[in-house]
Design a protein that fits this description.
By secondary structure, the protein is α/β, with parallel strands linked by helices. The chain has helices at residues 9-14, 71-74, 77-89, 105-111, 169-176, 204-216, 229-240, 310-317, 325-338, 360-367, 376-384, 432-444, 456-459, and strands at residues 52-54, 62-69, 95-101, 120-125, 140-144, 154-157, 180-183, 193-195, 199-203, 246-250, 262-266, 269-274, 292-297, 303-309, 342-359, 392-402, 407-411, 415-422, 448-454, 469-474. Strand 17 (407-411) and strand 18 (415-422) form a beta hairpin. The longest helix is centred in the last third of the chain and has 14 residues, at 325-338.
């Protein structure tokens, strides 16, 4: 079950007030126009880029960031607070590339008043062009490892990126800044990639999506005779994305097998659970940056990686996370350990939200329509559990609240810092204990902790702070 499968009529019926601009919106790859193949040189990432090397997820000071502020975010105080906490947390001297709607320029400029104006490059988008604040995903940032004199940053786009107008950002940024845009005949999203020292991580789902599109003929790739598809796709990732690091895939060995809808009866209450908001096929969350964090070398020299654990959050909160996703996190953590990483587990919350209450009669009537066919199984289960016409069914949608999705600096010159989102606010005040626990965890690694604003409004849209920025440059 892919992350984008909830955009249908049944989901809209069950979750009528679902937040807009979720990170998984349109996260399915449509039929591709084969004529695009003529516009793409599939043998080089870009003329002149001989050895692509991705910008690190952890190493060095954060020297340059790309941020995207659409009008819907500029107008929402709960989102603006998150944006501004990141801007204000960055040290003076940080450079910014800021994508914004034209009419919001004055407001957005004021947010950067604490930074030198010369360090901020503005990329205006026409107000009629939609884009999202998830700046991490639509491209990968890389340099040419052979270009020792001028490390120009390239934004490498995947073959297709259907979410809103985010596929326009790289090309527009190229018009207004020194950034350069490029494209590869591969499927990836920035949030499903993390870049270590001699390795980089890619969530397994998008590697398999690339294979599937090659087999279907929807990518303009011919696998050379005598080569396997897997071997050749790995070579393409090396040729286009990073030729200096080893690619390692992150995911389970078998599909999660999570159903779209579950009928749950507890203490006389009837719940229709939608547990898969943000899950992937082989990943407990659709992007690995939501449950994996790279922290740099541990004291014993092994590379330290944090992997989220709903069980640890349940122990701290007295809750119980359902649907067996814990086994997926555990399997991935065990594989990191087998590969020689120093694995640390940290709390990660799988949290429900009541999105609607409807009568069993209304649910049954909708399930009888063609659009509601997938709900007939849960209707039958509710019937067997004794549901009556006027029984109230509570629709419970689940999302992830994660501290793994943070910003990490590990610098010999400026020290080690981590910028952590916080969630223990308002109705989610119980999460303050995990805010504190995560600060203690990182402090124990020798990091200075910078607490950011309340990121619950982002988490409900299936992303957090790592999702709203793109590293464009790191200090040595």
């Amino acid at each position: 079950m892919g992350a984008g499968t909830y955009g249908d009529a049944a989901y809209r019926f069950l979750v009528p007030d679902a937040p807009h601009h979720k990170r998984t919106d349109s996260d399915l790859f449509p039929a591709f126009d084969s004529t695009r193949a003529t516009t793409l040189n599939v043998f080089r990432a870009r003329p002149g880029v001989q050895r692509p090397r991705l910008i690190s997820s952890w190493s060095g000071t954060i020297e340059s960031l790309l941020l995207a502020f659409p009008s819907y975010g500029v107008r929402a105080p709960e989102l603006t607070a998150g944006y501004r906490s990141v801007i204000n947390a960055m040290r003076i001297g940080t450079r910014f590339v800021v994508v914004h709607h034209e009419s919001d320029r004055q407001v957005v400029e004021e947010w950067f008043s604490g930074h030198p104006a010369a360090n901020v490059s503005y990329v205006p988008m026409p107000d009629y062009v939609d884009f999202t604040d998830w700046a991490e995903d639509g491209y990968l940032a890389l340099v040419d490892a052979d270009d020792t004199d001028d490390l120009r940053t390239y934004l490498l786009e995947p073959w297709s990126f259907p979410r809103s107008g985010d596929s326009l950002i790289a090309d527009t940024a190229e018009e207004f800044t020194a950034l350069r845009a490029s494209q590869a005949p591969l499927v990836f999203q920035g949030g499903n990639c993390l870049i270590g020292d001699d390795f980089w991580l890619l969530g397994t789902d998008y590697f398999l999506d690339t294979l599937e599109l090659i087999r279907s003929g929807e990518l303009p790739i011919s696998v050379p005779e005598g080569r396997t598809e897997v071997e050749f796709v790995r070579e393409l990732f090396r040729r286009h994305v990073d030729s200096t690091r080893e690619l390692q895939l992150v995911g389970t060995k078998r599909p999660l097998g999570l159903k779209r809808y579950y009928a749950t009866v507890s203490d006389g209450e009837f719940f229709l659970d939608l547990p898969g908001g943000g899950t992937g096929d082989l990943q407990p969350i659709f992007h690995i940056d939501m449950f994996v964090t790279l922290a740099g070398p541990a004291d014993d020299g092994r590379f330290r990686v944090l992997v989220g654990s709903p069980a640890l959050a349940d122990a701290a909160l007295g809750t119980k996370s359902p649907f067996a996703l814990q086994t997926a996190y555990d399997e991935i953590a065990a594989e990191f350990d087998r590969l020689g990483f120093a694995v640390v587990r940290n709390p990660l919350v799988h949290r429900p939200q009541i999105t609607q209450r409807l009568t069993f009669a209304a649910l049954r009537d909708f399930a009888a329509t063609p659009d509601g066919a997938e709900l007939r199984e849960v209707v039958a289960q509710f019937t067997a559990a004794g549901a009556q016409q006027d029984t109230v069914v509570q629709v419970r949608s689940w999302h992830h609240i994660t501290w793994n999705n943070c910003l990490v600096e590990n610098s010999s010159s400026a020290g080690k810092s981590v910028y952590l989102p916080t969630f223990g606010h308002g109705e989610q005040a119980d999460l303050a204990v995990i805010d504190d626990e995560m600060e203690r965890l990182w402090t124990g690694f020798g990091f200075s902790v910078v607490r950011l604003a309340d990121f619950n409004a982002f988490a409900s849209r299936l992303g957090v702070v790592h999702c709203i920025k793109k590293y464009l440059g790191r200090g040595a």
